[in-house]
Amino acid sequence: MRKSKQIMAVFTLGAVFPLLAAATLITDTVDNTDGWANLGGGFYTASIGGLAPVSGTQFWTAANAVNTRGTWKLFSDTFVEESLKVTYSVGDRNDLAWTGDVTAFLFADVNGDGLYAWTERINSAVTTDRTDPVDGWEEWVDTYNITATTKTANNDLVLGKDIGFFVLSNIGSGENMAFDSLAIETIPEPATLGIIAAGGIGLLWIRRLVML
Fold first, then answer.
1. DSSP one-letter code for 173
2. Ice-binding protein C-terminal domain location, by residue (predicted)?
3. Is the pLDDT of residue 72 over 70?
4. Which is deepest, 76, 132, 151, 165, by most CB within 10 Å?
5. pLDDT (tens digit, 9 = 90+) per residue, 5-31?
């Protein structure tokens, strides 16, 4: 009986730990059939300037614009949560210069119209890890420390609103930029990470008892 209870504890803890860890909210291949919309121009392609898709069958790109170009998508029924990590790929063609001017943010559909708006961007709670690409792709990572008081650029609360993502680039003549493969996931709070760590130690201890 004692061993059966120990085994049950092992399975219970094993089932709970993944729920406490990071959870993926969105994985998107950034194909034009996935609901992405252009902002001022750009197009989707399977191959150009030495670039191929990071995921899916296409990626977004723009070049030779002398103007702002970009793309956006709203993920209806997926909501802004606390502490989010956003990972995506930004690319540079090998036949044109890199633009060096990219703006990318999550946004919250605070007015409920299902559309992107510049004033809906969440730019007050983000730290970025971005390396400019050179003749290929680089993975960019943005971390959002969102709380109950986090607001959009227009001073509207974001928590619980439909979540979206956009990328913009002020592309000049002879310049380019590409974008692909978006993922958004939750980040466990420090207290939760402590529970996971402590539980992991307990799990090892219980497994050891089971082996006795």
1. T
2. 186-208
3. yes
4. 165
5. 444 444 444 444 444 567 999 999 999
3-state SS, residue 197:
helix
| Identity of residue 171 | I
C-alpha angle 77/81/84, rounded to 5°?
115
CA torsion angle for 74, 100, 170, 110 (degrees, to 10)? 30
Report the DSSP beta bridge partners of residue 103.
168
Quote the tokens at residue 179: 């974008």
SS3 per-residue string spanning 65-134: CCEEEEEEEEEEEEECCCCEEEEEEEECCCCCEECCCEEEEEEECCCCCCCCCHHHECCCCEEEECCCCC
Max CA-CA distance within the chain? 75
In angstroms, the Cα distances linking 125 to 100, 104, 121, 153, 169 are: 23, 13, 11, 11, 21
Locate 189 and state its tokens. Answer: 């709070």
Task: Give the residue extent of every domain in the chain.
Answer: 1-21+189-212, 22-187
Please enumerate in sequence order all residues whose Cβ is within 8 A of that of 113, keeping only pairs 6 or more positions apart, or say none.
Answer: none
Contact 95, 50 (CB under 8 A): yes
Report, in angstroms and rounded to the nearest whole number, the Rg of the chain calculated over CA atoms. Answer: 21
- Per-residue pLDDT tens over the stretch 109-125: 999 999 999 999 999 88
